[in-house]
Amino acid sequence: MTEKTTGASYAAAGVDIEAGDRAVELMKEWVKKTQRPEVLGGLGGFAGLFDASALKRYERPLLASATDGVGTKVDVARRLGVYDTIGHDLVAMVMDDIVVCGAEPLFMTDYICVGKVHPERVAAIVKGIAEGCVLAGCALVGGETAEHPGLLGPDDFDVAGAGTGVVEYDRLLGADRIRTGDAVIAMASSGLHSNGYSLVRHVLLDQAGMALEQHVDDLGRTLGEELLEPTKIYSLDCMALTRTAEVHAYSHITGGGLAANLARVIPDHLHATVDRSTWAPGAIFDLVGRTGRVEQLELEKTLNMGVGMMAVVPQESVDVALTALADRGVDAWVAGEILDRGDHTEGATLTGSYAS
């Protein structure tokens, strides 16, 4: 009698197509909330469609694009089993890069890679992305969920996204507009945002052995709640500011820290100085530095130190700019100025000591 054998299958290899389909159904309601009138078709097509005729109102439209992820912050989300905030972080990382040049965010796509598709988890991630897109004013036009069994563990995942925006050529912001005497306005971050988590995890979780569920008095909440605080999305705030006041440049403070990111928009013949005494970084920055005995310069080139976005504006626009940001609930202050290069070898430096 011949023994009956079962051939190999995709499911046997660890890929669950039905779970993937279920995830798509669960995320549809959230994606729908992000739709703009220029978006054609629905979720599930091979490509997202955006009606480019909407750009006819521009004389010379420039498309701006960016792509990013949220780094090892996903490990904190995985450990806590919290999946509905990490997508918010993704939108912030992508769209706040786009708005820096003065561009209006238009649409975004995402890529979610998992070891095993848990439909509810994937839908929670997409829910966060959709909510972030609403806050950024852009549409979520599509994405991809990939299941990689054997490469990732059943609970492992990562996220990435790409976005597109548009800006009129003669309204493009950047180094060419910056002048000596301009003021540097800082906008407060909501915490660590989505950079430096390899250092933070190493110091607090690996070295100090702190638990994510542990309540930390200095933070006023658990460590996990602090570490998963969503990255602030500044896109609509920056667009509103540009309409209200003269803005020469923005700088999104991400990996590399404040000085390095600000230097990216400073022309070679000028120099930006930022006075640390104009603000006090949040408690999480002190906790990381103190617990890991991390030197201040190392902290500053890794973490945002309490500033998530900076705007360079002419002095005569400072009051209008601060008022406009305050009206939108953005904590902002004058943190520095633009000087002639002089003997400085770097585009931006921090001076003084942080306020206590």
From TrEMBL:
Record pathway: Purine metabolism; IMP biosynthesis via de novo pathway; 5-amino-1-(5-phospho-D-ribosyl)imidazole from N(2)-formyl-N(1)-(5-phospho-D-ribosyl)glycinamide: step 2/2
Listed InterPro entries: PurM-like_C_dom, PurM-like_C_sf, PurM-like_N, PurM-like_N_sf, PurM_cligase
PurM-like N-terminal domain mapped to chain residues: 59-167
Record gene name: purM
Compartment list: Cytoplasm
Record flagged with keyword Ubl conjugation: no
SUPFAM superfamilies per UniProt: PurM C-terminal domain-like, PurM N-terminal domain-like
Coiled-coil intervals, chain numbering: none
Protein name as catalogued: Phosphoribosylformylglycinamidine cyclo-ligase
Enzyme Commission code(s) on record: 6.3.3.1
Alphabetic keyword roster: ATP-binding, Cytoplasm, Ligase, Nucleotide-binding, Purine biosynthesis
Boundaries of every PurM-like C-terminal domain copy: 180-344
Principal location class: cytoplasm
Family membership noted in the UniProt record: Belongs to the AIR synthase family.
